[in-house]
Design brief:
The chain is mainly alpha-helical. Helices cover 51% and strands 11% of the residues. α2 packs antiparallel against α3. InterPro entries: TRIM45/56/19-like, Znf_B-box.
Amino acid sequence: MAQAASKTCEVCVSAPGSQYCIECEEYYCENCKLLHNRQKLSRNHQFQKASDLIPDGKSKCNEHKEELTLICNTCNAQICTSCVTGQHNGHTFSKIVDVIGQLRGDNETKIRAKENESIHNMKKIEDSLKSFNNSVESVIKSINDEGNIIKRMVDKSVAQMIALVKEQSKKEKGKLLNSLADAKSVFVDGQTLDRKRKELEKTRQDGSLVQKINNLKEEIDKLTINSLPEFPKISFSRKSVAEDDIRQMMGTYTISSCAPVLEKKENPCRIVLIQDVLH
């Protein structure tokens, strides 16, 4: 089992080893790091903060007391260089620093891929939302336009029906006015004959009076009173119109309801007839 070693500079062995040389796999203090970077053979060595190392601090093999610098790929265990010729003989190995670098690189690559995919999805969603909003406005305009067309058709039908009522009622009222004029004419003629009758009552009763009375009688007999016409009637029978009847006059619209997008899977959309839902 590995045990954690204290993080002390492995050069001066006095100051805290706050820096870790990846190539040398050793801890350095700040001063020793500066000296290490000034040397020709190590000027390009890469350092890492000791606090960022995983695992925290260096571990040593309990069996060989050497630093654990390798990972046995076969056993998936940390080992030292002496373990290679021991119980791990014939296995495949990787440097711990290489594994850490590879894992960090893989994680960074995956994170960048996820970020890029998220950006791509956000852009597609925003574009789709904008397009959908435009389509909604277009559908609303179409519904209003069709509603206005139907309103104009209703207004036209109402105007035509009212005009027809006025035309036909004018004819019927004309007939009544003619009958009224005839009745007034008979009444006037009757008044004229009545005045003649009264005048004859004042006339001397002789043979000529008889003739005059007979003449008046003939005129009275000729006075004809027409029978009353059949009086016209008008009424309106309302049809029962429900909201569903109005909807039947309108067009329909659909919205495709799509399931959430799943990675590498189909995304079927369900077409819904919205007007049917309203019923």
